[in-house]
Amino acid sequence: MEAPTPYVELSREQWRDLRLNTPLTLTAEELEELRGVDDPIDLAEVTDIYLPLTRLLNLHFTGARQRSAAVNTFLGDDHAPPPYILGIAGSVAVGKSTTARLLHTLLARWPEHSRVELITTDSFLYPNKVLEERGIPHRKGFPESYDRRALVRFVAEVKAGVPEVRAPVYSHLEYDIVPGAVQTVRRPDILIVEGLNVLQPAPPAALAVNDYFDFSIYVDAKVEDIRTWYVDRFHKLRRTAFADPKSYFSYIADMSEEEATRFARNVWRDVNELNLVENIAPTRGRAGLVLLKGSDHSVRRIRLRRT
Ligand SMILES: Nc1ncnc2c1ncn2[C@@H]1O[C@H](COP(=O)(O)OP(=O)(O)O)[C@@H](O)[C@H]1O
Ligand SMILES: CC(C)(COP(=O)(O)O)[C@@H](O)C(=O)NCCC(=O)O
């Protein structure tokens, strides 16, 4: 007999009704600033999907605060509550960063948790030089391309309430870690940790970054749809970011349309799809919530973990 599913599955319409009276606190102009390259997200998506989601997260945050107060009561002390850690996982080009940036802004507009910080795990990729020394420059995004221990230490320190925790900074333009650049996180109410591999289990006897998560979201879609989004975004970037002479990919701006399509499809197949199938998709069942997108990027179904 198959194990019972821990998830309750809701249609977009059922989920939308769970917004109740959560107010819309975002304007169309602000949304424009937050959406990723080529992501068609609109205010209807924010209202139907993200407002119920922030209501759920607000309730969950309150529950976590109550749990930490219970531990204080037991120990007879008055320890400050630990930051609430939210993980966001999913494939390259699925739209995780739009989800993360939107939640960053929306959650910060609730008085209970106005201090929200966002970190993307590309900050913990090894610099290109190290990837080359290890013979894995074509494995960027695969588990071995990250300094896993530094990432776990970063999240552990934030969770422990260390006043200032620093992380490196990754640039998509330079396709590398920016030497000397740092992002500092100062005791937020909520830390969002977004990245391909945030739900990956730890090696034996080690801790994983998700051991520190209070909740996690997996952004999901059909592989064929994500491939189309990846290739379309690649063409968009070719006309915009890659046209910048400082871009690592500036040589792509000079390719013909057909050459660029072939290039993007090959990178998708040999790197990103492989990583999705081997490492990312198998972690979906560990998420607290799964957002299932249709081919137009809109969320069609939602799975929420009950147990
Ligand atoms: N080569 C690139 N140059 C500039 N921006 C990029 C490049 N690749 C991805 N991005 C942007 O970086 C962000 C993260 O992209 P990605 O890791 O594919 O995750 P996702 O699409 O799930 O957010 C997105 O906002 C995307 O538009
Ligand atoms: C930087 C990334 C590994 C994503 O990193 P994340 O923030 O999810 O850890 C990815 O966007 C990437 O650049 N992949 C390499 C293959 C490609 O250029 O598509």
Descriptive overview:
Its main location: cytoplasm. One of its GO terms (cellular component) is cytoplasm. It is found in: Cytoplasm. ATP binds at residues 90-97. It catalyses: (R)-pantothenate + ATP = (R)-4'-phosphopantothenate + ADP + H(+). By secondary structure, the chain is α/β, with parallel strands linked by helices. The protein has one domain: P-loop containing nucleotide triphosphate hydrolases (Rossmann fold, 3-Layer(aba) Sandwich). It has 9 helices and 9 strands. The strands form 2 sheets. It has a 7-stranded mixed beta sheet. Strands 4-5 form a two-stranded antiparallel ribbon. Helix 3 (43-75) packs across helix 4 (96-107) and helix 7 (223-239) crosses helix 9 (257-280). It is globular. The mean pLDDT is 96. Bound molecules: adenosine-5'-diphosphate and the ligand CC(C)(COP(=O)(O)O)[C@@H](O)C(=O)NCCC(=O)O. Adenosine-5'-diphosphate binds next to helix 4.
**Count of strand segments:** 9
Give the biggest sheet.
Answer: 7 strands, mixed
In round numbers, the mean pLDDT is 96
pLDDT below 50 for ≥5 consecutive residues: which ranges? none
CATH evolutionary superfamily: P-loop containing nucleotide triphosphate hydrolases
Query: How many whole angstroms does the radius of gyration measure?
Result: 20 Å
Family: Belongs to the prokaryotic pantothenate kinase family.
Enzyme class: transferase
Protein name: Pantothenate kinase
Binding site for ATP: 90-97
